[in-house]
Amino acid sequence: MISNPFLVLPNIQLLLFLSLILITFHTVIADDSFVWLVCSSKDSNFSTNSTYQSNLHRLLTKLPSVASPSGFSIIPEGQPPDQVFGLALCRGDVFPSQCKSYLSTAVDGIISRCPVGKTAAIWYDKCLVRYSSVNFSSVDDTAFRQILYNVGDISNPESFEELYMVLMGDLTQKAAYNSDRMFAVEKANYTSSVKLYGLVQCTRDLTREECYQCLHLSQTQMLQCCWGKQGGVVLAYSCYLRFEIYTYYDESLAEPLLLSPPPSTSTLSPKSEPVGDSGTTPARRKDGRSRDKRKILALVVIVPVGALMLLSACFLYMRRRRVPAPDAADVEKRNEESLLFNLDTIKVATDNFANRNKLGEGGFGWVYKGILPGGQEIAVKRLSINSRQGLIELRNEVVTVTRIQHKNLVRLLGFCLEENEKMLIYEFLPHQSLDKFLFNPNKCGQLDWRRRYKIIEGIARGLLYLHEESRLKIIHRDLKTGNILLDQFMNPKISDFGLAKLIDMEKTRGVASRIAGTNGYMAPEYVMYGHMSTKSDVFSFGVLVLEIITGRRVTEFHGSGHAANILSYIWKNWIKGRPLQTMDQRLGGRYHKNEAMRCIHIGLLCVQDDPKKRPTMSTVVLMLSSYSMNLPIPSSPAFLVQGSTTTENSTANEAGNCSKTKQSSREKRKSRLVSANNVTITDMEPR
What is the pLDDT of residues 158-181, one digit of tens each? Predict the structure, then answer.
């Protein structure tokens, strides 16, 4: 009786082993065609035989070996200014041994196709290699996103789209929040004979929220780009998405495979273990020896290291007791001084506030473009002499707000208080404000549906940060299209929150002594009673959403006889079952119907008369990102007509139209909820 056939037939065993090696080698080598390449422009190349080239060579040489055990790595090489950062990522269904081969092929490919590029990235079917002179670690880089699609069309695109959204939404959730490797695959039945296969993955330097946002954006853009296609791929620096109607990943490796750490032998099936002469599996014998070595290592290394750490902790503790903590007032003073800009510096940057550098005007004053000596572009808001914003209040607000940072908030760089000047200095955004595009017939064409949806999502995330995720709880109070700025990639950034109101984190609302905001965007409870809360901002967000999808100003219907404002206009079409008739006609019907309906629905939920019925911004973000979430039925919106002027431009003549009788403060505010011909807002606080 033969107990081990491999011992009797060594030649057959050798042939099988060699065949396995040849198959693996062929798989790696045959997959040598790259999917996409990004190479820096000629003005961003490095010189041959330079320090940067030497650092890059060392980085690319060791990157495959460093990344292959876990399937992912980001490493630096060299020192500034010639430092280079590299990233390597293998697809989640790839073995570590295969990963190294794939990455080596990718390294050869990026060197041959981008020989002197200071920044480059190359995608293969199974891996990504990227390097740059800029540290991109832990950054959700949205600067690049390439969509490739299968030229074949699907027979029933409507049902296919629904299945795609459910499948990719589920995968995005799993990869972002349920996978240590930020990787997920899944398949779903499209018909009795056709399945839909999905795969998503993020680079593991992202936070889970950033991974979710990256994949969700790819998921949405793929659908907007290539509706009705049988499959497609979205390549981005930080995430990867693919779907097909055929199997393209290794199903046996995708789910159970754990690249780091490797699975313990106790989880392997006994059938997969070759049995040795002694009846003990070689894997188990090896694992036993490994455990013995680990015990010895623990005694020799870990115990002394632990003792050293204990001594270090004691030393630091004693040293901290001797050194007094810095005074809080001193820290605050140093922080404030770091935000102060010299008036002469601002004058030079703006060419002494030259007219050609004017970007815009409001009741607060003018905004100028400037360039600092180092080349940084800035936007300078020069408050008018008549501004009610006090110096102490301005300083305190600026110092506070500069502590918060978010990609959907305009960054406040500092302020200047010299010679009766009061100025705020912001980062400069080239596209300026959203209203310059949305309501301009010559520019609105640049706002296709994909960009509009992206803008809505970005505003929601920025507002959520102000309300719930920052160290402070901030109510913006003046959310409008004019205060949404767009960067070079048309990403939205909320501005003018420097003069917003901070409230106690334990409180849900506050009471304003004076009403500040813009007519048409303010919630009714705020106008009537001065009650300000996060739900006041939610109301403004709802108005903003309805403006973005219709392409019409909130006050456009003022005095038209058809509707009091945009809220009543959309509500009438909603209850008549024709909400899509309110969509911006300039889109030419080129928009995603389900997304458009969802935005209209969310907009109406946000502008409901009762603040308690309005969703929080965390719920709004979830509504925008989850197509499986059922939305509640909206109730009638607040048909509040607040005129067509901003609070900064309200005049004494307008104030006279509101009421000529002496009223209490509350009665005055109630009187503002009247017909469109009589109502204006008085007693305004400039912003």
Answer: 888 889 988 998 899 899 988 989
Out of 205, 478, 537, 584, which one is annotated catalytic?
478
**pLDDT tens by residue, 17-28:** 434 333 333 333
| 339-427 shares the fold of 29-132 | no
Alpha helices in 147-271 (DSSP H): 157-177, 208-225, 251-254
Question: Secondary structure of 192-215 in the HEC alphabet?
Answer: CCCEEEEEEEECCCCCHHHHHHHH
Q: Helix, strand or coil for residue 589?
A: coil
> Do 538 and 619 form a contact (C-beta atoms < 8 A)?
no
Run of H or E residues at 427: strand 421-427
pLDDT in tens, 287-334: 444 445 555 555 555 556 566 666 666 555 555 444 444 444 444 454
pTM of this structure: 0.50
- Active-site residue 487, yes or no? no
Alpha-carbon gap, residue 380 to 543, rounded angstroms: 28
Specify the range with the lowest mean pLDDT, choosing from 2-16, 347-361, 647-661.
Answer: 647-661
- Considering only CA atoms, which of 214, 193, 96, 93 is closest in space to residue 145? 214
> 167 by DSSP, 3-state: which?
helix
Tokens 């107990």 belong to which residue? 3
Q: State the CB neighbour count (10 A cutoff) for residue 586.
A: 12
**What fold characterizes domain 29-132?**
Killer Toxin P4; Chain A (3.30.430)
Helix (H, G, I), strand (E, B) or coil at 487: coil
Axis crossing angle, helix 617-625 with helix 593-606, rounded to the nearest 10: 170
Report the C-alpha gap between 550 and 530 in whole angstroms: 29
What fold does the segment set 339-427 form as a domain? Phosphorylase Kinase; domain 1 (3.30.200)
